[in-house]
Model the fold of this input.
Amino acid sequence: MISALEILRGSTAHPLFTIAAAVVMCLVIALLGPRKPRQRLAYSTYLLASSLACVIGGSWLMYFIHG
Done:
């Protein structure tokens, strides 16, 4: 079985780190502020989807620019 360190040392380190950072950011932001649990879930889900869409869109843009 592949360990987490082996994955982070490989070529997939950047996408995994980006996804992990987005998830942690969404969890922290969901805990802040006076929101109800349903609002926290909805806001953090929206933020995670927006973050991942920006990352995917940005990666395609970099691919088209740099080839």
Remarks:
- The two ends are 34 Å apart (CA to CA).
- The chain has one domain: 4-66.
